[in-house]
Amino acid sequence: MAAKSPDKPDVTSPEPSRADRTRLRIYDAVTDCLDQFGYAETSINRVQTTAGVSRGALTHHFPSKEEMMVRTLEHLLAPVRGPKEAGETGHILRKGAQGDDLPGELHHLWARVINTREGRAVMEILVASRTDAALRNRITPSLWDYNDTFNRNIANLYSAPSGEDLALLWSICRSFMRGLHSQAPYERDPEIITKMVDLFGRIMTPHLAARAHPGGQNEEPL
Predict the structure, then answer these.
(1) Contact 211, 219 (CB under 8 A)
(2) Least confident of 1-5, 53-57, 93-97
(3) Are 102 and 205 in contact (CB under 8 A)?
(4) Rounded CA gap, 131 and 134, in Å?
């Protein structure tokens, strides 16, 4: 993408409206609260205080905690759906400098996507939905849509030379990576998680191959 000229406005990126800025502040506050305090303690009052917005502004956008969680989940999933076309750049799942090094790419995803405040916030919502039927019913269509989109788009980054189902292989990868959150408390040595990611990447390497991208270079995600 061409660099923005200093003397020309970027007409492709209009300034967000006041309502958009407020929503983003609330999303950010919900994410922080989920990460720091967990789902049960992420109340409307706590989010309001953290976001620094009025009660009226918050409830105008999100009239209930359930609505706030559903929309926050959708907001957090949006950047990790995979590129919609092979040449798309600036995406969190874009191949990095490791090239065909799948263990390196999985380490990158752990550090940049899963073991982050955003990734931990998503896990808080998912765990809460196990026993909250109303929340589960609300988020299930979004999760299915995310999964379908991810599975379609991941084919722009990888192929499956082993002949296995590519979507199934990446579902296994994603399940393993999310499960590290549950395994970490059991381990005395935090480096075990690093070793697990490395070993799992080597196990999966024969089954997944990175596709070449236009220009012959892999681009670092933003």
Answers:
(1) no
(2) 1-5
(3) yes
(4) 9
